Write a sequence for this structure.
C-alpha cells in the first residue's frame, strides 16, 4: 500500500480520481493536437483543390518507397508501444523496458529515413525559397506543395522527437521501479500520444506521397 | 461649433440612401433596447436598494415565459436585420449591366485608375453623376481596401485577384477615397479623391485629358507586341484557341470540367498557362509572368472583351 | 489581533524561491496578477501615445512608422498578454478550486509551467518591442506580415505562439478540474456561474488556440525559411490566412468576455442578495456562445473578397450568437428585481458592465448586418465596438472581480469610497473615450490612421480627453489596492455576506483551501438560506 500513497498527488482524493483526471487531460490535449494539425490539413485541402495538377506533379517527386517504409516502421512502433503498455499492465518490468527501447529505436529509424529524404530534397532544389527549382510551368504551385510537405512532415517529426523524449523518460522511470500494476498511467498516456502521432502520419502519407499515383 | 462636429457623413450615391435607412432602423432598435436596460437597472437599483443590513432579496428563481419572450423577440428582430442587411449587400455587389467600367490598380501607397477611353489618373477618379460605375480592382503588392464613405461602399483590393465594386453617384462634388485595409507605413497617406461631375463636364474632361489611345487599343497593341496573335489566331487555326468572342463564355478544359472565361481566368492563363488548359490544345504556352504588368493584363482583358462585338463566332 | 499567528497560503513560507517554484494555485494566481498588470500598463502606455498623436490631424508627434508600431504593440500586448490571460489565469486560477471545494487544480505543476510559458512568450514579445517593434497590426494580415513588413514580425509571432500553449494548458487544467474535482454534492447545476463561464472559455482555449498557433507558425516559416503558403506571388491565397486567423481570433473575443460575464453573475447575485434569475439559461448561454462563436469568423471578412453566399451565412450565424448574450443581459437585469441592492464598488463595476456591454452588443448587431458593415468595417466604428466589449466589458468585469475577491486574496479591505470613485471615473472616462469613435467610424474615419482629415479632429480630441480620465481611473485602484495590503482593515471570512464555497474558508485561505472536503446540499446563490444550511464540513472543520 505504501507505494500507492507516494504516487497520489495531494490534490486528489484517491488514485482512481487521479487516473481519470490524467486520461481526460490527455484526451483534451490530443483534441488540441487535432486542431493544430487540422489547420494545416485545411490549408493543404484548399490548395490541392486549387492546383490539382501541380500537386500531382510535385507529389511524384517524393520517394513513395521511403514513405511506405516509414509507414511500416511507424505502424510497427505502435505495435511495440502497445506491447510495452501490456508489459506494464501485467507487471513485467523487463518486457516494459525492452519494448519501450524498441519503440525508441523504430522512432529513430523513422527520423533517420526522414532526414535522408529531406537531404535529397535539398540536393534536388526542392526546398521552398530562393533556391527552389521545378521544371515546367507549374513551379509556383509546386512550391506551395513543398511548403506544405516541409511544414507538415516537419511538425510531425517534431512531435516524434518529443515522443522519443517521453519514451526515454519512461525508460528511466521504469528502471527505477516507479511503475506497478496498480500505477502505470504515464506509460499509458505516452502510448496514447505515440499512437496519435502515428495516426497523423497515416493521414500524411497518402495526402503527400500518393497524390500523383492515380492521375 | 457644430460645423466642426459633423455627425452624419455626406450621401452621394444611390446605395448610400439605402444604407442610411438601414442605419436608422438599427439605431432605433439599439436605442430602444439600451434605454430599456438602462431605465430598468436604474429603477430597480433605486427602488430595491438595501434598507437594512440583514435584508435579503426575494427568492425568485426565474420565469420560463420571460425567458422565451426575451429569446424569441430578439431572434425575430435580428432576423429582420439580417434580411434587410442581406438585401442591401446583395445589391451592393450586383452591378447593372450598363455600368461604366473603370480599372483600379492599388500599390503601396497610391491608387491608379484606368478609364476604358484611355485616361489614367493617380489618386483621383473622375466619374459622371447619375451613371453606374463598376470598378475592377487588383493590387500589385499587399491588401488594400477601396473606401468612399460618401458612397457607403468598401471592398478589399487583393494581390493576384480581381474584386469588383459598383456605385451610382447622385451628387456632383469631391469625396474622400480612403485605403481602409492597413497596408504599411504610409497607409494613412494612401488617400484619393473621387470627383463626381455633371455628364457634360465629364465628357469635356475625357476629351481634354485624352492620351490618344483607349484601353482596348493599348491592349491590342500589347497583344501584338507580346506575339499572342501568332498562336491565338482569330480563325482558330493556330496552336492556341481563338480568343474572339471568348470573354464571359464557358470554356471546356483539358481533363474535364469547364470554367467561365472571366477576368480571373484570363489573368491566370497569362501568368500560369498550364493551370487550366482549354480542351483539345497542348500545354505549350509559356508564362508571361514578369513580361506584363497588372495594368497591361487589364488592357489585354479590355481588348479581349472588345472582341465580343465583332468578328465571326470562331468557337471550337 | 490574535496572539497566535494563523498560517495561510501567503505566510506559509517566504522568499523568492517559494514563489517561483510554488504549485499552489493561489500563489500562481498572484504570479499572473503581477505579470498581467505589468503588461496592462505597457499596453496602456502605447495607448496613451496613440491618443496623444491623434489629438491633431497631422502626424506630428511620432513618425508614421512609429505610429504603426504603437497600435500594433498596443493590440498585441493587450489582447495576448493582458485580456486573454487576465480573468482566467488570475481569478479563475485562484477561485475555481475553492469554488468547487478542491485542494488545488488537477495538475498543479502544469499550472506553474503555464505561467513560465506565458512569461517566455512575453519576453519574446518584449524583446521584439525593444528591438524596434512590429508594424503589421495585431491581425498580422498576409502578405504584408509575411513578405513586405521590415519589422520584427517573426520574433513577435514566436512570442504569441509560445504564449498560446500557456492558454491551452490553463484551459486543459480547468476542464479536467471542473470535471473531476468537484466536492460531493456539487452537481453541475449547483456550480457558480463563474465556473460555467470558465468551462466555456476553456473549450475555446483548447480548441481555438492551436489553430492560431499553427497559422502564426506558418507566417513565421514563410518569413524565416521562405516557405510559400500565403504568398500571392507564388499562387498562394492571402485570404486563407484571414480565415485561419479569425477562426481563432473571433472565439478569442469570447475568451475575453465570457469570464467577465461569469464575474458579473456572481456580483449581481451577491449585491442583490438573491438567486440569479434564470440560472440554467445563463449557464447554457455561456456554452452556446462558446460553440456558435466558432462558426461566425467570416463576419470579419464581408469585404475581403469572400463570396456573397459566405457573407450571408456568416451574417446569419453572427446574429444567432448575439441571442445568448441578450439572454444574459435580460437575466442580470431581472435579478435586480425585488433584490436587496447595495452599491459597493464591485456592484458599481457590474452595473457599469451591463450598461457598457449592452451598447457593445447592440453595435455588434450593426456590424453583423451585411449592408451596413460594408460602410463601417475597418473604421473607428469597429474600434469603438470592440473596445466596448473588451475594455468596457472585460476590463470592467475584471476590476469588479478583483475588488470583490481582494479581501479573500489578501485578507484586507480597500478604502470603499476611493473604490467607488474609481469605478465612476472608469465608467465616465471609458464612455467619453470610445463613444465618439462610433461617430468617427460612421463618418468614415478608417482605423490605423496616423494622420486624418481635419473634419475628424473635434471627435478625436473628445476621445483623447476621455482617455486621460480613464487613465486616472486605472491608476487609482493600483495605488489604493497596494496601500491596502499593509494598511487596509482586516477583512474576515465573508465581508460581503456572499454565498459560495470560497467564502467558507479563511481570508487569506490556508494552502489546502479547506481542512476537510466540504459537502454541498444546495444550488448556488441560495441567499435565502444560511451558509451552514448549504455547505457542510466534516467534524474537523474549522470553527
Amino acid at each position: 500500500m505504501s507505494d500507492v500513497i507516494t504516487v497520489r498527488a495531494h490534490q486528489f482524493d484517491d488514485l482512481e480520481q487521479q487516473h481519470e483526471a490524467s486520461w481526460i487531460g490527455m484526451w483534451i490535449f490530443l483534441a488540441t493536437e487535432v486542431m493544430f494539425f487540422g489547420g494545416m490539413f485545411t490549408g493543404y485541402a484548399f490548395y490541392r483543390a486549387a492546383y490539382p495538377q501541380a500537386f500531382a506533379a510535385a507529389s511524384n517527386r517524393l520517394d513513395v518507397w521511403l514513405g511506405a517504409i516509414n509507414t511500416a516502421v511507424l505502424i510497427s512502433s505502435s505495435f511495440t508501444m502497445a506491447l510495452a503498455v501490456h508489459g506494464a499492465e501485467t507487471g513485467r518490468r523487463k518486457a516494459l523496458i525492452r519494448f519501450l527501447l524498441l519503440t525508441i529505436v523504430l522512432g529513430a529509424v523513422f527520423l533517420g529515413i526522414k532526414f535522408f529524404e529531406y537531404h535529397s530534397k535539398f540536393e534536388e532544389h526542392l526546398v521552398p525559397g530562393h533556391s527552389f527549382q521545378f521544371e515546367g510551368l507549374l513551379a509556383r504551385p509546386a512550391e506551395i506543395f513543398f511548403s506544405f510537405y516541409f511544414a507538415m512532415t516537419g511538425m510531425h517529426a517534431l512531435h516524434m522527437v518529443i515522443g522519443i523524449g517521453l519514451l526515454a523518460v519512461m525508460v528511466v522511470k521504469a528502471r527505477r521501479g516507479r511503475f506497478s500494476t496498480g500505477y502505470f498511467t504515464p506509460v499509458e498516456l505516452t502510448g496514447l500520444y505515440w499512437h496519435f502521432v502515428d495516426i497523423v502520419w497515416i493521414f500524411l502519407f497518402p495526402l503527400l506521397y500518393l497524390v500523383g499515383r492515380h492521375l | 461649433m457644430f460645423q466642426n462636429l459633423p455627425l452624419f457623413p455626406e450621401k452621394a450615391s444611390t446605395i448610400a440612401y439605402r444604407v442610411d435607412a438601414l442605419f436608422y432602423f438599427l439605431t432605433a432598435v439599439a436605442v430602444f433596447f439600451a434605454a430599456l436596460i438602462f431605465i430598468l437597472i436604474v429603477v430597480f437599483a433605486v427602488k430595491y436598494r438595501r434598507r437594512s443590513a440583514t435584508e435579503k432579496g426575494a427568492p425568485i428563481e426565474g420565469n420560463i415565459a420571460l425567458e422565451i419572450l426575451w429569446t424569441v423577440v430578439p431572434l425575430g428582430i435580428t432576423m429582420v436585420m439580417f434580411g434587410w442587411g442581406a438585401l442591401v449587400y446583395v445589391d451592393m455587389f450586383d452591378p447593372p449591366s450598363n455600368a461604366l467600367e473603370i480599372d483600379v490598380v492599388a500599390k503601396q501607397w497610391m491608387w491608379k485608375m484606368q478609364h476604358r477611353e484611355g485616361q489614367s489618373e493617380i489618386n483621383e477618379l473622375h466619374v459622371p453623376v447619375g451613371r453606374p460605375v463598376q470598378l475592377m480592382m487588383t493590387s500589385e503588392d499587399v491588401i488594400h481596401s477601396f473606401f468612399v464613405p460618401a458612397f457607403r461602399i468598401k471592398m478589399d483590393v487583393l494581390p493576384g485577384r480581381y474584386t469588383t465594386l459598383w456605385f451610382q453617384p447622385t451628387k456632383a462634388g469631391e469625396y474622400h477615397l480612403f485605403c481602409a485595409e492597413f497596408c504599411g507605413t504610409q497607409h494613412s497617406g494612401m488617400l484619393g479623391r473621387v470627383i463626381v461631375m455633371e455628364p457634360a463636364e465629364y465628357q469635356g474632361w475625357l476629351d481634354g485629358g485624352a492620351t490618344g489611345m483607349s484601353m482596348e487599343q493599348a491592349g491590342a497593341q500589347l497583344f501584338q507586341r507580346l506575339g499572342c496573335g501568332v498562336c491565338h489566331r482569330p480563325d482558330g487555326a493556330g496552336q492556341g484557341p481563338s480568343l474572339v468572342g471568348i470573354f464571359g463564355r464557358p470554356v471546356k478544359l483539358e481533363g474535364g470540367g469547364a470554367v467561365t472565361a472571366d477576368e480571373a481566368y484570363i489573368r491566370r492563363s497569362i501568368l500560369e498557362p498550364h493551370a487550366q488548359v482549354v480542351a483539345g490544345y497542348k500545354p505549350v504556352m509559356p508564362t508571361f509572368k514578369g513580361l506584363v504588368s497588372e495594368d497591361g493584363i487589364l488592357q489585354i482583358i479590355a481588348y479581349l472583351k472588345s472582341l465580343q462585338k465583332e468578328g465571326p463566332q470562331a468557337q471550337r | 489581533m490574535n496572539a497566535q499567528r494563523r498560517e495561510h497560503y501567503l505566510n506559509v513560507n517566504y522568499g523568492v524561491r517559494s514563489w517561483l517554484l510554488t504549485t499552489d494555485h493561489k500563489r500562481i494566481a498572484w504570479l499572473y496578477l503581477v505579470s498581467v498588470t505589468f503588461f496592462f500598463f505597457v499596453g496602456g502606455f502605447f495607448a496613451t501615445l496613440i491618443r496623444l498623436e491623434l489629438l491633431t490631424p497631422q502626424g506630428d508627434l511620432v513618425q508614421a512608422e512609429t505610429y504603426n508600431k504603437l497600435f500594433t504593440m498596443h493590440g498585441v500586448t493587450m489582447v495576448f498578454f493582458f485580456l486573454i490571460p487576465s480573468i482566467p489565469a488570475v481569478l479563475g486560477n485562484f477561485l475555481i478550486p475553492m469554488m468547487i471545494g478542491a485542494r488545488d487544480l488537477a495538475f498543479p505543476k502544469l499550472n506553474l509551467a503555464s505561467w513560465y510559458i506565458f512569461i517566455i512568450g512575453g519576453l519574446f514579445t518584449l524583446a521584439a518591442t525593444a528591438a524596434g517593434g512590429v508594424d503589421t497590426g495585431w491581425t498580422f494580415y498576409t502578405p504584408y506580415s509575411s513578405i513586405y513588413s521590415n519589422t520584427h514580425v517573426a520574433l513577435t509571432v514566436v512570442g504569441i505562439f509560445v504564449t498560446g500553449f500557456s492558454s491551452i494548458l490553463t484551459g486543459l487544467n480547468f476542464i479536467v478540474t471542473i470535471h473531476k474535482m468537484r466536492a460531493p454534492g456539487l452537481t453541475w447545476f449547483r456550480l457558480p456561474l463563474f465556473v460555467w463561464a470558465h468551462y466555456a472559455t476553456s473549450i475555446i482555449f483548447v480548441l481555438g488556440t492551436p489553430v492560431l498557433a499553427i497559422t502564426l507558425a506558418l507566417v513565421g516559416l514563410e518569413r524565416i525559411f521562405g516557405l510559400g503558403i500565403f504568398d500571392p506571388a507564388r499562387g498562394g491565397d492571402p485570404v486563407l490566412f484571414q480565415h485561419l486567423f479569425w477562426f481563432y481570433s473571433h472565439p478569442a473575443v469570447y475568451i475575453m468576455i465570457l469570464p467577465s460575464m461569469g464575474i458579473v453573475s456572481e456580483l449581481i447575485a451577491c449585491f442583490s442578495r438573491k438567486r440569479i434569475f434564470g440560472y440554467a439559461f445563463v449557464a447554457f448561454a455561456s456554452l452556446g456562445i462558446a460553440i456558435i462563436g466558432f462558426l461566425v469568423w467570416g463576419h470579419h471578412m464581408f469585404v475581403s473578397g469572400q463570396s456573397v453566399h459566405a457573407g450571408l451565412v456568416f451574417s446569419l450565424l453572427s446574429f444567432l450568437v448575439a441571442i445568448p448574450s441578450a439572454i444574459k443581459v435580460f437575466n442580470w437585469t431581472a435579478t435586480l428585481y425585488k433584490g436587496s441592492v447595495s452599491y459597493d464598488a464591485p456592484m458599481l463595476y457590474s452595473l457599469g458592465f451591463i450598461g457598457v456591454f449592452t451598447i457593445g452588443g447592440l453595435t455588434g448587431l450593426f456590424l453583423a448586418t451585411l449592408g451596413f458593415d460594408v460602410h463601417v468595417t475597418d473604421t473607428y466604428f469597429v474600434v469603438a465596438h470592440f473596445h466596448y466589449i473588451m475594455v468596457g466589458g472585460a476590463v470592467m468585469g475584471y476590476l469588479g472581480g478583483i475588488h470583490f475577491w481582494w479581501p479573500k486574496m489578501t485578507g484586507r479591505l480597500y478604502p470603499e469610497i476611493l473604490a467607488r470613485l474609481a469605478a465612476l471615473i472608469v465608467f465616465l472616462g471609458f464612455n467619453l473615450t470610445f463613444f465618439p469613435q462610433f461617430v468617427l467610424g460612421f463618418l468614415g474615419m478608417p482605423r490605423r490612421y496616423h494622420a486624418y482629415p481635419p473634419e475628424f479632429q473635434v471627435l478625436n480630441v473628445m476621445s483623447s480627453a476621455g482617455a486621460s480620465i480613464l487613465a486616472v481611473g486605472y491608476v487609482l485602484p493600483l495605488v489604493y489596492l497596494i496601500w491596502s495590503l499593509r494598511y487596509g482593515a482586516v477583512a474576515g471570512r465573508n465581508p460581503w455576506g456572499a454565498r459560495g464555497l470560497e467564502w467558507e474558508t479563511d481570508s487569506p485561505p490556508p494552502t489546502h483551501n479547506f481542512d476537510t472536503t466540504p459537502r454541498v446540499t444546495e444550488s448556488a446563490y441560495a441567499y435565502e438560506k444560511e451558509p451552514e444550511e448549504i455547505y457542510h464540513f466534516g467534524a474537523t472543520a474549522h470553527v
